[in-house]
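User: What would this chain look like folded?
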Amino acid sequence: MRSFRPNRYSLAGLALLGAPLTAEAQSVTAGPAFDVSVTVYRDPYRGEGGFDLDYLGGFALITESRRIELQPGEHTVRFEGVADGIEPVSAIVTGLATGVVEKNRDAKLLSPSALVQAAAGQEGRVDLLRTDPKTGVTTRTRGTIRAAEGGVVFETPNGIEALRCSGLSETVSFEESASGLSSTPTLSIRTRVTEPVEAVIQLSYLARGFDWAADYVADRTPGESTLDLGAWITLANGNGVSFENARVQIVAGKLNRESGQVEPIDIGGPIFADCWPRGSTSDSVEPIYLQQAKGWLDDNIVVTGARMAEAAMAPPPPPPPPPMAAEVVQEELGDLKLYRVPGRVSVLSRQAKQVRMFDRAAVPVTRLYEVNFSGNYSTNFMAVPMLLRTQNDTESNLGLPLPAGRVQLFEQVGEGAAERRLLAGETTLRDIAVDEETEFEFGGAPDIQARQTVENVTLSPERSLPWLPLLRVVPGVNAGSRTLDQINRIEVANARSYDVTVEVRLYLQGGTEMVRADAPYGQKNGRPIFRLTVPANDSLTVRYQTLSYAR
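Assistant: Here's the prediction, encoded as structure tokens.
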């Protein structure tokens, strides 16, 4: 079952392939999609926070299976209920032996105003039904719409009058809809067949107005060295079309893609009733504005008769969903990562919904605190962020690519009846590969503070260094350059009742190197790093010396 509700999203323009065709093509509607696959590519530039369904920067590859019957001849095959963000140039139809010679995106939707405009001037194609509220008697009068701009004007055997000016309950009944109008976004193709065709065809196309995001929830008990980690995938569909019982995949990674201009969808405008007293066409009164639900038929407008030939047979019942997997299955897609969502998911119109990605218990983590300083730069005391570190491998109960997303940390506090699960911090996670070190960094801890102070700066001639003669033989070296010798002091204070581990990472500018320190240090990602154990209710001081060379 496919449902539709238009939004402000734009539609791609017309794409024509092949030579012009004759006008005798028969209109055939393909059956509704009975098997749908939706692969969502995320917006690579979307920031944190929720989705704006009107401005989703991702897109989706949609593949639908539909049934169709064709007789020999030339046909316009209509696929109703495609996404209103469809890019027609990307559409591929397989299963037709003769192929496709033309593709069109029908941007004008069936709506009250579109029906009125399409029926204007068509003799005897509209019935005006009026119901007397006192007697309940309904009268039907066959007529013709003579004007639809600035007010709807009817001509009946009784004369000319305006819509909704009689004071009675009115219903407008159309004999049939205007050709080419549909209540849902429609893609149409032209094809020729030389023999009867009864087949299942696949329609695949790209559509805008989709996005997805990953959200992680970590549960940790204070004092323990493990946490439970769960992940959710949030799917967002900004289109007016739902894709129910679909097989869903998501793709992580940045995909270079250019988008052209798009054409707005025509969802119809309001219908106006500019009334004048019955029997007079010269004395006007205040206009009446009729309410209209965008894209839907108004309660007082009814379409009777077939809109188009329904050549497609009824779809079979949807296939049973496969057994639910324990978690999303990850595969390689070139340099990107593809995740298959277990079971089937309904990606509904104008909605963001969450599906479970995975649950992992007892993930071992190391809790420590980390502060970053730029070398030779004084700071005030600052709160030191907490870090939970683990390894993304099977030994740590993980071992799958982790897409970038938001992380929420919850901790159990209190005992007995006072025990509560409370939010302890939020952070973001970048894309993490398998076997890569994984760090969750949370906000600064006020009980643990650190600062850096530049204690001493000495500027001395560089020629005093023992290796200067070697540089003199290199062309372009300024022998008059000087050496900047600086000593920095780092202080870390711990106001907690237990020892904590603090890592201090240094950023050193180009041409600067650390030559000595009064505490052991190493290198990580090309940067000097101190790993310090700060005693409870105490502080610790570390000094280091750098040399830099300036001309």
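Confidence is low (pLDDT under 50) at residues 6-23, 260-273, 276-326, 462-480. If you want, I can go into more detail on any region.
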